[in-house]
Design a protein that fits this description.
Number of helices: 4
Low-confidence stretches: none
Shape: elongated
Strand content: under 5%
Distance between the termini: 29 Å
Number of strands: 0
Radius of gyration: 15 Å
Structural class: mainly alpha
Oligomer: single chain
Largest sheet: none
Length: 122
């Protein structure tokens, strides 16, 4: 479920890196436009992930971990929608328990270096 959103995020990051090889050369106002565009493209994917995960019924013993994970994804989507700069937050998709549970396409482990889409945006 999360792989599609992650793949789209990676695709956008690669496109931006190819188009803007020197991120420091881009003015701040243009950077903000690029962030908004990235969020506009990504948000529907993350909203679908939340909807699709909420539709699943996890085993009772795992319900708390999964529910917290879905809430984490939902909060991340809402944060991006409110403030496109949130896309750069390393903590946005960090959820160790969800990662350990096996939702490795949905979350980053707390110890892994997060590489946000925004890092490819100058």
């Amino acid at each position: 479920i999360c792989k599609v959103a992650k793949d789209e995020s990676n695709k956008i990051g690669q496109e931006l890196s190819a188009k803007y090889p020197d991120p420091k050369a881009v003015p701040e106002d243009q950077y903000q436009v690029l962030l908004k565009d990235a969020v506009t493209r990504l948000l529907p994917f993350y909203q679908k992930v939340v909807t699709d995960l909420r539709a699943l019924t996890p085993p009772a013993a795992d319900a708390v971990v999964v529910a917290k994970g879905v809430d984490t994804l939902d909060q991340a989507a809402k944060a991006m929608e409110t403030d496109p700069n949130a896309i750069d937050s390393p903590a946005m998709l960090s959820y160790q328990e969800g990662y350990d549970y096996g939702l490795t396409e949905c979350f980053t482990p707390a110890t892994k270096k997060f590489v946000p889409v925004g890092s490819a945006i100058p």
